[in-house]
Amino acid sequence: FHLFHWREPKKSAAAFSLSLLVLLSVARLSIISVASYLLLTCLCVTITFRVYKSVIQAVKKSDEGHPFKSLLDRDISLSSEWVRMLADQARVHLNWFSGQTRRLLLVEDLVDSLK
After folding, report:
1. Which terminus of the chain, N or C, has less C-beta within 10 A?
2. Full-model pTM
3. Which helix (H) or strand (E) holds 70?
4. Residue 82 — very low, low, confident or very high, per pLDDT cuts 50/70/90?
């Protein structure tokens, strides 16, 4: 929320610049290409960081462990209740969308269909 009000200009500028770059990329390239380039960039950064930390650990002869250990140990599994809730919400939205589409395409109300 603070990003939109520019209370922290450096973070806001970085966030909006990145957003603008992604939007321009999507306008120029396909979404799949943009997503794959972003993921490839993330992979390159994380591999470089991991190799850097491994070299630093070898030089200092320390045993700090894996740099992403806390992220790897985090549980990211989805609970069945949460998935059921999302499926129910998706079903409600899909039913509304299909009803609206049917109503507009089959011209239930001429004015609404012409809009």
Report:
1. N
2. 0.58
3. helix 69-73
4. very high
